[in-house]
Write a structure and sequence with these properties.
With about 170 residues, the protein is α+β, with helices and mostly antiparallel strands. It folds into 2 domains: about 30 residues; about 140 residues, Peptide methionine sulfoxide reductase (Metal Binding Protein, Guanine Nucleotide Exchange Factor, Chain A, Beta Complex), CATH 2.170.150. Helix content is about 30%, strand content about 25%. It is built from 4 helices and 9 strands. The chain is globular and about 40 Å long. The termini are far apart.
Length: about 170
């Protein structure tokens, strides 16, 4: 009987290692700042220049793919007509006409402005999520989920600190 137990343990350890491989592979991927630097965005600055231009919280979100605390952004409660811009480069991202209250604590939109954002796959939580970034500077904005309202069914869950607002 002892041989069976060892064999089962060995088998379980191999299965566990196999299941962990995608997560470990994701951990070895470049940091968001490194990935952004590798892409050819229209607006580019060195890390030092980004740190000069942005507040520490904006840098953490836009350049290091951080997330602000839910329900802390005044832009979540913004109801005026206007345009939401990238806080890093001023690119126009979302129209207030596509903003809605998702009750998640972050500004949410069901559609971006044409050509305003790009997408990549984020594995930071160990499973794939669709990350949204500014098409002009590559700044991390948030994520897109498939639980939004008509007509798109999408919820662009965006960090308020990654944006500014320009009233109409």
């Amino acid at each position: 009987m002892p041989d069976m137990t060892i064999s089962r343990r060995r088998m379980l350890s191999w299965l566990g290692a196999g299941a962990a491989m995608p997560i470990l592979a994701a951990c070895g991927s470049p940091t968001p700042a490194q990935a952004q630097a590798q892409q050819n965005f229209r607006v580019r600055y060195t890390e030092a220049q980004w740190r000069e231009r942005l507040t520490p919280e904006q840098f953490r979100v836009l350049r290091e793919a951080g997330t602000e605390r839910a329900f802390t952004s005044p832009l979540d409660r913004e109801r005026r007509t206007g345009t939401f811009l990238c806080a890093g480069c001023g690119n126009e991202l979302y129209s207030s006409r596509t903003k809605y209250d998702s009750r998640t604590g972050w500004p949410s939109f069901y559609r971006e402005l044409p050509g305003a954002v790009g997408y990549s796959t984020d594995y930071h939580l160990g499973y794939p999520r669709r990350e949204v970034h500014c098409a002009d500077c590559g700044g991390h904005l948030g994520h897109v989920f498939d639980d939004g309202p008509a007509p798109t069914g999408k919820r662009h869950c965006i960090n308020g600190v990654a944006m500014t607002f320009r009233p109409a």
